[in-house]
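// run 5 | inverse folding | seed 20
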């Protein structure tokens, strides 16, 4: 008789020390995250007071273009590479070098797309800010050796590179804005910060891998084949996260983009926490997926429960204090961001849960399960934006985002449970 492994108690070894490892790694990241939080708060405080609402809208529009471009320039390749390095560490250097060559080539297409968008549809400072800031796409391609630190969970070393990037970009951005260089000056400053971060990454990872791009068409086909589904997941997720900025600009005004961007900043900051936790948990999940599916299910349930318990008070506190947050942080002219913030924080709460489910599907090699969630959520998001933005502006865009993330959460959780049960019974 076949034992019922699906109902067997989860092995203690899978969870042994996970709380301590997670706490230790998050503690090591705490200095970096405090720095990131201070810089983000100060950046928004300064930009919303030194730039007009429309110019601040242009700043957020520029960020939306590049975030979407970075998604197209990666297509899930980096995440798949982490999994491959964890499962086959002896092949680290050839894997990284081949993927680096692919990433460099992939970064050219979205950069050209950003230039075309800027030159054909935008004007003034926003146009040139997008053109300049899109140079971060090839720069980011060369940061690929960072995946070696992620695979080996070397959190402290990875944090050094982020400090170099954020501090350099922040200091130069403040100097540019106060000197009167406006949005274009801020874009130049942020590009220089990306260069500083790249230099730090290459210096830190040189002991693990030589950052030499390799042209290997066979390896590129294999990598893209493995990452294609995940790439579509990321593209559709980025669509839900960023298309509202583009639709607001087209259907209302850049001032509405500025108000929406003000509401978006805090949820974006709060979404870093589960992503940081996954830096520790995803490599563990990748290893358990091939050697201990029952242990993987235990880790998944442990993680998703605690993530949900963390999300609930965050959503409630931000919803209650939204007027105070906007008044203190953004100042006069951004009162219209209060209701959008109350909607967007619900999308953050849903993301705390869905990111865990998506990562367990990826670790299992079942990224199509995560794709199913966004195949439903992305069209719903576009439809709701078309319905609500003309009538409600930024509030309509925020409500559409919250509804879409709720859909993605429900579908991804269902798919994760389905595939975990199959893996345990196999």
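// decoded
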């Amino acid at each position: 008789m076949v034992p019922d492994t699906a109902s067997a108690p989860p092995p203690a070894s899978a969870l042994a020390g996970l709380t301590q490892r997670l706490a230790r790694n998050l503690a090591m990241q705490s200095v970096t995250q405090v720095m990131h939080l201070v810089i983000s708060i100060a950046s928004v405080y300064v930009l919303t007071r030194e730039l007009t609402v429309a110019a601040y809208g242009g700043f957020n529009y520029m960020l939306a273009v590049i975030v979407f471009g970075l998604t197209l320039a990666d297509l899930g390749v980096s995440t798949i590479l982490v999994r491959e390095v964890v499962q086959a560490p002896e092949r680290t250097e050839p894997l990284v070098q081949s993927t680096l060559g692919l990433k460099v080539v992939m970064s050219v297409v979205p950069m050209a797309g950003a230039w075309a968008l800027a030159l054909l549809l935008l004007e003034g400072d926003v146009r040139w800010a997008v053109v300049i800031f899109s140079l971060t796409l090839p720069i980011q391609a060369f940061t690929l050796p960072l995946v070696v630190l992620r695979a080996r969970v070397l959190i402290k070393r990875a944090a050094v590179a982020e400090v170099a990037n954020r501090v350099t970009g922040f200091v130069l951005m403040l100097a540019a804005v106060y000197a009167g260089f406006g949005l274009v000056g801020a874009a130049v400053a942020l590009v220089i910060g990306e260069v500083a971060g790249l230099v730090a990454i290459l210096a830190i990872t040189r002991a693990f891998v030589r950052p030499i791009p390799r042209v290997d068409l066979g390896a590129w086909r294999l990598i893209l084949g493995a990452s294609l589904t995940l790439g579509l997941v990321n593209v559709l997720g980025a669509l839900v996260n960023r298309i509202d900025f583009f639709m607001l600009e087209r259907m209302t005004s850049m001032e509405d983009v500025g108000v929406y961007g003000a509401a978006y900043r805090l949820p974006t900051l709060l979404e870093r926490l589960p992503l940081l936790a996954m830096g520790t948990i995803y490599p563990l999940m990748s290893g358990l997926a091939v050697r201990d599916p029952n242990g993987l299910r235990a880790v998944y349930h442990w993680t998703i429960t605690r993530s949900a318990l963390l999300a609930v008070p965050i959503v409630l506190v931000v919803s209650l204090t939204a007027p105070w947050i906007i008044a203190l942080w953004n100042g006069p002219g951004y009162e219209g961001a209060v209701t959008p913030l109350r909607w967007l924080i619900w999308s953050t709460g849903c993301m705390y849960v869905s990111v865990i489910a998506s990562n367990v599907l990826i670790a299992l090699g079942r990224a199509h399960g995560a794709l199913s969630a966004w195949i439903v959520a992305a069209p719903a998001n576009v439809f709701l934006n078309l319905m609500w933005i003309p009538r409600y502006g930024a509030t309509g865009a925020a409500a559409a985002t919250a509804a879409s993330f709720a859909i993605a959460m429900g579908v991804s959780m269902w798919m994760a449970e389905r595939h975990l049960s199959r893996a345990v019974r196999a």
